[in-house]
Structure formats: structure tokens, C-alpha cells
Design brief:
The complex is a heterodimer of chains A (511) and B (207).
Chain A lengths: L5 H4 L4 H7 L17 E6 L2 H6 L9 E4 L8 E4 L1 H5 L8 H7 L4 E4 L2 H15 L6 E4 L3 E5 L4 H4 L2 H14 L4 E6 L2 H9 L12 H5 L11 H9 L5 H5 L3 H8 L1 H11 L16 E10 L6 H17 L2 E12 L2 E14 L2 H14 L6 E8 L3 E2 L16 H15 L4 E6 L9 E4 L21 E8 L5 E12 L7 E10 L4 E7 L6 E6 L2
Parallel strand pairs in A: 2-4
Antiparallel strand pairs in A: 1-6, 1-7, 2-3, 5-6, 8-11, 9-10, 9-11, 9-12, 13-14, 15-19, 16-17, 17-18, 18-19
Chain B lengths: L2 H7 L15 E2 L4 H6 L5 E2 L3 E6 L6 H13 L8 E5 L4 E2 L1 H6 L7 E4 L4 H14 L2 E6 L6 H14 L3 E6 L11 E8 L2 E9 L5 E7 L2
Parallel strand pairs in B: 3-8, 3-9, 4-6, 4-7, 7-8
Antiparallel strand pairs in B: 1-2, 9-10, 10-11
Helix pairs in contact in B: 5-6
The chains are: A alpha+beta (511), B alpha/beta (207).
Amino acid sequence: MLEGSPATITPAPASRQRALAPVPAPRAKPAAGRGQLWLAAHFTRLPLDALLPGTGQARAAVVTALDDPRRAVVACNERATRQGITPGMSLNAALALVPGLRAEEQRHAAEAALLDRLGRWALQFTPVVSLEPPAAVLAEVRGSLDLFGGAMTLVRRALADLSASGLSASLALAPTARGALWLARADLAMTVTRIDAMPGIAARLPLACLQWPADTVATLAGLGIASVADLLRLPRAGFAARFGPQLLDELDEGLGRRPGPRRRHVVPERFDERLDLEDAAETTGGLQPPLERGLARLENFLRARASGISVLRVDLLHRGGAPTRLRVALARTACDAAHLRELLRERLGRCRLALPVVALRLRSGVLLPLRLRDAGLFERGRSANPEATARLLDLLRARLGHEAVFCVLQVAEHRPERAWRIAEPGGTTSLPVPWHAARPARPLWVLAEPQPLENWEGALVTGPERIETGWWDGHDVRRDYYVAISRAGVRLWIFRERPPGQRWFLHGVFG
Amino acid sequence: MSDTLAELLRHPALWRGGSASAPETVPTGFRALDARLPGGGWPLSTLIELLVPTAGVGEIRLLLPALRTLATAEGGKPRWIVWLAPPHLPYAPALADAGLDPAHMLVIRPRAGLDRLWAMEQALRSGACAAVLGWTGTAGDQALRRLKLAAEEGRTPGFLLRPSAHRADCSPAALRLALAARDCGLDIEILKSQGGGPARIERLPIH
């Protein structure tokens, strides 16, 4: 039986119990530590708060589901609720109720970002915080109760914080994480402190607060199961066989019959340090010594965490002026100060100081795991070394600018000027274009724009190759291409426009 | 040869051009040219200068077979070939036709002339590239010497493409060729060749 009370375990005859419960019922003793107390915050209007923050009191607004032909309402603000809109309603129905309704499409990325921020907010109460996407945050607060003056004060304080930032949440406290989550979803502002009270309280909850898959809920409804109390009366074995062991485990976790380990929400570390200069630097040369110190600290910081960075921001702070911001992007995750110093030297060489610099600020981007590479014993320097290539790329870009270094890839297109594009070096290898084998040779150099040829003298060698295509996008070409040799002996790729144009153009050089 | 002369020749301080140990090379892909070059191909890890009357006489077609070999030299992993300040943009479909992966052709277009020399030196020194093709324009003897040292340090062949006007200039390049187009072929004059001697090849057929 799902209900783990002693009454249902002990009196049942042994044979009957085996038939009903081949999966042994977990120990009645709570596996989840008796000491835990979880605060669950369920954000009822998270999709709305993520997109339209602080619109609780404004005009009626809803957020609709993504990729849904009905555009069902996912969340609505208070005014919309007062005017009769409920989640699950189609947008058309909602618009019929409130003609001037503001409707936005759900954005999962914004929701995830907001939940991440809420996770950081919850870290003020306890270091043990866990996110429950899409819309809940869990925090283990037993150890913090004394500090915050008891459970009630803590909840009041959290609620005040949330409503001050215009978020609507329902909070609940329970000895298990999942149990607290159920209570919060059911919008029961309850505090359950004793684990043995959980089964009794859970039985009073509606089935919806479990947030199980819709088809499972439908099947259960077909069986006449409408509440958690009904659910707890089902035999364990049959339930596990029919719906899988995960849902049974979820129930056991909620009731404290098995531990429910949770992933901790950890705020990613970053390096952010300010270095004050003893004397204001007038030239970029004066920045080198403090920069060197800062970079050495950054390297230590990164090495201690076996991490690297792909972006470094350096702000040059001036007295009474906006800071000069520099950004160094690396082609490959790196951590060593010497490489960064070299890049910054080139980068600083390009920038002109309008005001003297009084301080520097170094900020890393997100820390990335560093893939360390052994130095080869028989390294001959001729094999492809991805680190060396990335370093070269960084260095060239730091001095010449990002756009000065690129590679060209081919594009499956018959129009010669569109058969290539500029791309990031070292990326994907370009795919072979199917008709290559069949077509005449192409020149190794191409002119950015075909150049008109006036009074040209030379000999045509091969041709014509007729290229007549592209009428569908307004950039159609109608050309006859020839290979020609100029008087200087250079092989050229030239074309003549088809009538009525008839002019000659130079398009490429065979090199 | 008299005994005195033989004795003199054994002197350790005496260096003879012909006896220099053959440099590491990559075949040019043209038998007539290979036969005239010491080591039978383009020397690796040094500076090679190609003088052309005008861009496009066939200098790239001359280099293509070697570039193909260099790009996939070891372990089958493609390596970068740097095109530094080329007179026009390399055309990706033609590169692919020639058997070079366009994704590994690094085009660098610096604005200032000095940046070209700097970028070429960095590319050569890094050892990250299979070959560096540079159109550096005017460059003094000292700048070229730096490039040669960088090529030796990075063990990367550097092909310097310059106008024929620089023919009479003094240059530290290990190999200097003057090219001229003639009848769908290429006249090649070897002006300087470390470990070899001057030579002329007429109408080398390049495709």
C-alpha cells in the first residue's frame, strides 16, 4: 500500500501482502533527515513576471503558451483574473472577455533567468538552495531559523521581499523538499514541522499539486483517483508496474520515506578586482605594472579552480569621466597571464587615453573548465596544435581588430559572387558542393565587385560558360564567362553581360 | 686535386656551399623545378621570396601542390595556411577545387603596412601554420631578416610575394625566384638558392 502507516503494514496476512506489495514498502522510519525543514516558494505567475515585471496592478495582461495553435493562457495578472480570465483559457476566449488585453508569448529563457535570480535571492536565508524548474525555489532553512527569529518571521520576511519586487509567490514549509513543494503548489500557506504529519497532510492535497504528466493524471482520473488521498490507497506494486517506479519514488520522497537528494544551486564564481594606481597613469605604458599584478592574481584564481576564461573585461577608470572599457575575447579557454598580458599590450596599444587612469578593474566572464594538455615528449612542432592556433588568432585580432582576420567558405550557389561567404576561422569544414566536378575551373582570386573592362586587349582562351540564374530574388545574373589572358600574361576570368547589356567585366584572376 | 688543396678543404673553418646538409623540403609538385632546388623542393622553416611582375602570373598555381601537401602534412589533421594581405580575396570554390579546405585558410587583411610585417612575423613564429603567404610590399633588409628568423623559430615556410622591382634588392631569403608568364607557362629564374646555384627554367607548364 502507498499508505505507509503501521495499521496497513502489520495486520495484512503475509500471503496477501506479498501479492499486493512485491516491492517492499520502505521503512516507516523517515529516511529524509529528521532535522530538515524546507521552504518552498512557488511562483504562480512566473511566465508573466519574467516578461512583464511589475504589471500586477496595470491593465489586464496574459502570457500565452508557445507553439500552441489555441495560444492557451499560461499566466495572467490580477486585473485579468478579476475580469474572468483563468489559465488554460484560449487567447480568443480571453480577448472576448477583455478586448484590450495585452498578450505576450511565453519565453522560457526569460523564465529560467528569473528563476536563477530568485535562487540567488534565496541564498540569503541558507546556503542550501535548489531550483525546481519551471517555477519553484527550495531552500533548506532549519539551521537558519534561530537567526531569522523563527519560521513565521522568516516566511513573513521572504514574502515581504517578494511582494516588494512585484512577484507573487506561495510559500510553504515542510520537513521534505517535495512535500514543501506540494504544499506551495496547492497554495496552502502551511508550516509542517513533524515528518510523521506529512502523510496525513498530503492526503488532503489535490492531485494537481503533484504536477504529474497529463496522460498519467488522465489515466488516474479514469480510475476514479481525484486526490492524493485516493492515490495513497492504491497498492504499491500495481502502481509501480503501471506508472513506473519514478512516480512512486516521488511520493515516497514527499512523505519522507526515502531520501530526496537535490542539486544545489551554486552561483557561478567570477573574478572581479579593482587595482588602484599609486600615481595616475597618463600613458598606456604606465598601466603595465599594475596590470601585470592583476593578471597574476587572475591566473592564481583560475588555476586554483582549474578553470579558464574566454572573455576578459578591463575597465580603465578615470577621475571624473566615464571609464574606458576594453574587452578581450579569446579563441580558446585560457588561464595563463602571459598570454593575456600579450593580448592586452596589443589592445592597449590601439587605444588612446583621453584622461589619466587612476584605477583598473579586471573582470572575468563565466569560468569555464580548462582542458589541460600534456606536453608531448616527441613533439616536433609540425602537427596541428589547437592551442598555438588559438593563441595566434587572439594575438592577431587584439592588434588588427576582429574583422581583419577571417576565412572564406563556399556556399552552394551558382552565382559566382554569392558562392562564398566570410566565416569564423577554424570552424566547420565547408561541405562539398554537388555540382563542382562538372563545372569549369574557377579563379583563385575574386574581385569584391566585378570591374568594368574598357578598351581591353587580350585573348580569350576558353568559354563561354553561361551563368543565367537568380531571377527569383531580384539579383539575377545573365552572363557569359570566359578565361582570358591579358597582355601581361595574367589569366583572367571575365564575363560579358548577355543582351541588352553587352558590357565586359573582370571578375577574377587565376593567380 | 692536389694534396694541399684537399688538406685545406678539410679545415673545419672552411664552409662549402655544395656540401651543406640538405634542408628539409616539401616537393613543389613540378619535376623540372624540384630538380633545380637543393633538397628537391621548397625548403621548410625558412623564407622564400617570389618576385612577380604583376599579381596573378601563376604564382599561386605554382605553390598549390606544395600547399596541399603542407596543409595535411601530419596526422591527417588540417593545418592553417595564412594569406596575409593578398591583392584580392581568395575564392573559396576555387580553393575547394584545388583540394584545400577553405575553412583552414586564414585570411588576414591589416590596414597599415607595418602591421603586415608584424602579423607575418607572428604567424611564422607561432608554429601554428602549415605555411604563410605574405604580400608585405615594401620591407627593409632588417624586417626581412626578422621574418626569416621567425620562420626558422616557428619551423614554418614563409612565402613572400613581392613585385619584380625588388629584384636588385639585397634579401636574406633562403630562396629567391623571379617569375614571368609566358605562353600558358611560367619562366622561373632562380636568383638565389642557399645550398644551390642560380638556374633558369623556361615555360614550366602550370595548370
